[in-house]
Task: inverse folding
């Protein structure tokens, strides 16, 4: 990978400053609340407030620091938002295409999303949107979708912040946000953490790991096809 | 007139090679696979790529894997306990089955593996038996399957292995983790060797050599791995004798009124329509959870306890292997995710001279692999930042892990859980499993030995890892037992050739037929057994 962590972090300053001015898909609108450092997409499956609460919670789980970007710069919240909005595009943004990303040669197959099978579509619609009383989605009973679950969790988190501190969750400092997460619904914490990790270190095609922020934070090269590693690289990985 | 000579349920390790073995003999084969076909050019003249990529998110979203959201399983460690929905085991659900995502480690068994009772005697509370076949019977099928899927290795490098000829191809590049751990093992007098594996080190079978991207566990993007999809299934399709029915979930094995013969299968097709097909012979190769599940769901007046379950043993003796590891943390970078996950192994503890405390140990893998999402979600979130950015747990670790024998226990079983349904409307499989005392003794005896290897290799410290989760759910992907083979219909489900005792034309070609779990990675042997079974099916079809 041509980027180094140092050059990337330098570049990020420009990116972050530029964020409010951009309008294209997967780029950002001006933060709705001037006091928050969290970018918000022009369109979100959540309300803007909920997106901010989500961003603040993900930032609390994987905070950034001067030498290492965290969930915010990686756009982990954008990753989740794109999952929630997966069926707003066709094919749905669930599975990237294969085999190559194009970053190391070959075409960019990842962008050509893989069409879902009947069962996969039923699975992901049910998981994201809920069963909505549709018999074909209730093979094991009613299902509350991921969108609705997140809406409830984020509202609850924001409300608990106001109850306990008198301030909304987004506006709190990092340590207070981390403390509030420790007493939050364990199911929220588990789900949120998994999505934060996925959004920070997963492939950028899913909307997170913005400009490879997550990979650079941990000195990780990411996908390697079709070049892989040579015998020399395998024998002496420390020299790469 | 039946639609097909043979209907095979499952296109993985056993089903795939069975399809090719029968198609190449001119038999008309229907190969039914619940999962999708991720190979757009699978039957073309030139095989190019796949839908798999170096992409952890696809894995997180179960692309090509068993998906517990649509196919939940329940688990309990005690038959008196209430079973809970748990993520129990996750073999591939795609054309090629578990061979698509396995590490492709392909050691052969040792002769004593099939004679554990004779060699080591009984274990109280377990049903240790000899296999009803000799090791020598497997050898020609090992040779066939190694050529079919393409196995790399170095003959003679493992002094504890049975004599054998040359491998189809030489070992590929070694990983640093494999080399470092091997040096430690050699310093202790052990005998590490290149891991035999079904991954091309050279151009072979129309498929390229591995470029060592390190993402074997997500499905090979370039088809260097010899999954059954890109080897046996592909050749079976190209023979013109095989119809692949992917995204088709078999829900019942159909039988004639007397129950002595199967007539075919009922399945739900890719559009959600219920269909049937008829076949002269039926082969079940869905894995050691899904095959007994299907048998138990196929009950009739002739088979009230489930198809072929007069013995009451369908689903019994479930085994996962006891897999545990000492994870070494090194000052130097080893980056175990560079290249194939395991490039070296050692068999010292499987030999009678290498045993510790009178308990036979298992095959030892030297290496391991990690990627950031997988590692990240395993950390407590409060410690995430420090643990991830230190890179200790990705760049500085290498594992010494053992494939330990999981003894067959009557109470460890697969049943149907009528309270939980899957997306096809079927009752979920209910797994009852608890580790036998033998298996825990095995862990206790050999973990210190694994630790010694890691420390001798230069690890500054080690972490113990056991593939049984905290709640007792094994997370290994080795599924064995549940339809064990034997000569006595009261003590086994199939005969020594894999045919069900109670049915004239139903065969099992997955890990379910294993009477004991052995001390080695099972896939190659499972495939050798399937080829042996296919030969018998062909003889039956010729009658």
Result:
């Amino acid at each position: 990978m041509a980027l180094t962590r140092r050059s990337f972090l330098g570049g990020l300053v420009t990116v972050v400053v530029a964020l409010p001015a951009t309008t294209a898909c997967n780029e950002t609108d001006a933060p709705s609340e001037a006091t928050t450092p969290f970018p918000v997409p022009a369109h979100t499956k959540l309300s803007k407030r909920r997106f901010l609460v989500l961003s603040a919670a993900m930032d609390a789980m994987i905070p950034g620091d001067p030498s290492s970007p965290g969930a915010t710069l990686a756009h982990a919240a954008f990753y989740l938002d794109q999952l929630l909005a997966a069926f707003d595009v066709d094919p749905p943004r669930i599975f990237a295409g294969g085999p190559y990303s194009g970053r190391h040669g070959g075409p960019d197959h990842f962008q050509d999303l893989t069409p879902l099978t009947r069962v996969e579509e039923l699975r992901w619609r049910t998981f994201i949107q809920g069963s909505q009383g549709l018999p074909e989605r209730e093979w094991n009973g009613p299902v509350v979708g991921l969108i609705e679950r997140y809406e409830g969790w984020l509202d609850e988190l924001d409300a608990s912040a106001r109850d306990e501190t008198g301030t909304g969750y987004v506006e709190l400092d990092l340590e207070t946000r981390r403390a509030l997460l420790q007493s939050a619904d364990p199911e929220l914490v588990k789900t949120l953490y998994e999505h934060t990790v996925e959004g920070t270190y997963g492939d950028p095609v899913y909307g997170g790991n913005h400009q490879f922020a997550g990979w650079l934070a941990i000195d990780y090269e990411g996908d390697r096809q079709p070049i892989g590693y040579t015998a020399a690289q395998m024998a002496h990985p420390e020299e790469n | 007139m039946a639609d097909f000579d043979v209907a095979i349920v499952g296109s993985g390790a056993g089903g795939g090679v069975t399809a090719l073995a029968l198609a190449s003999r001119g038999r008309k084969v229907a190969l039914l696979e619940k999962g999708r076909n991720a190979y757009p050019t699978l039957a073309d003249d030139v095989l190019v790529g796949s839908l798999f990529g170096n992409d952890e998110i696809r894995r997180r979203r179960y692309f090509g894997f068993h998906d517990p959201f649509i196919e939940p399983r329940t688990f309990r460690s005690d038959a008196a306990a209430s079973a809970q929905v748990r993520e129990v085991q996750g073999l591939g659900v795609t054309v090629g089955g578990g061979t698509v995502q396995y590490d492709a480690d392909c050691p052969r068994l040792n002769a004593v593996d099939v004679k554990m009772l004779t060699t080591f005697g009984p274990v109280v509370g377990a049903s240790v038996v000899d296999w009803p076949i000799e090791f020598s019977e497997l050898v020609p099928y090992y040779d066939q399957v190694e050529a079919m899927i393409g196995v790399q290795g170095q003959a003679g490098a493992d002094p504890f292995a049975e004599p054998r000829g040359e491998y189809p191809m030489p070992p590929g590049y070694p990983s640093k983790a494999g080399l470092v751990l091997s040096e430690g093992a050699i310093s202790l007098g052990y005998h590490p060797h290149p891991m035999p594996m079904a991954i091309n080190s050279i151009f072979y079978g129309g498929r390229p050599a591995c470029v060592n991207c390190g993402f074997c566990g997500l499905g090979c993007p370039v088809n260097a791995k010899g999954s059954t999809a890109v080897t046996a299934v592909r050749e079976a399709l190209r023979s013109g004798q095989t119809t692949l029915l992917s995204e088709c979930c078999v829900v019942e094995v159909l039988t004639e009124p007397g129950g002595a013969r199967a007539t075919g299968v009922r399945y739900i097709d890719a559009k959600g329509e219920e269909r049937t097909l008829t076949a002269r012979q039926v082969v079940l190769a869905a894995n050691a959870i899904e095959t007994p599940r299907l048998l138990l769901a196929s009950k009739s007046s002739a088979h009230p306890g489930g198809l072929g379950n007069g013995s009451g043993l369908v689903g019994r003796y479930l085994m996962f292997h006891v897999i545990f590891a000492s994870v070494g943390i090194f000052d130097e970078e080893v980056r175990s995710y560079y290249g194939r996950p395991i490039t070296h192994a050692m068999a010292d503890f499987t030999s009678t001279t290498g045993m510790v405390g009178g308990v036979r140990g298992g095959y030892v893998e030297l290496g391991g692999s990690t990627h950031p999402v997988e590692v990240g979600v395993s950390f407590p979130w409060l410690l995430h930042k420090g643990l991830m950015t230190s890179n200790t747990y990705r760049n500085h670790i290498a594992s010494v892990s053992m494939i330990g024998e999981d003894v067959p226990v009557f109470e460890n079983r697969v049943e149907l859980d009528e309270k939980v349904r899957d997306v096809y409307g079927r009752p979920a499989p209910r797994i009852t499993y608890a580790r036998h005392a033998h298996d825990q003794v095995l862990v206790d005896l050999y973990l210190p030995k694994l630790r010694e290897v890691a420390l001798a290799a230069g690890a500054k410290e080690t972490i113990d890892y056991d593939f049984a989760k905290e709640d007792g759910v094994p997370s290994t992907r080795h599924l064995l037992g549940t339809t064990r083979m034997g000569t006595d219909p009261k003590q086994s489900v199939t005969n020594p050739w894999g045919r069900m005792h109670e049915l004239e034309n139903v065969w099992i070609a997955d890990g379910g037929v294993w009477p004991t779990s052995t001390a080695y990675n099972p896939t190659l042997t499972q495939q050798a057994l399937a080829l042996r079974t296919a030969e018998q099916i062909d003889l039956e079809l010729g009658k």
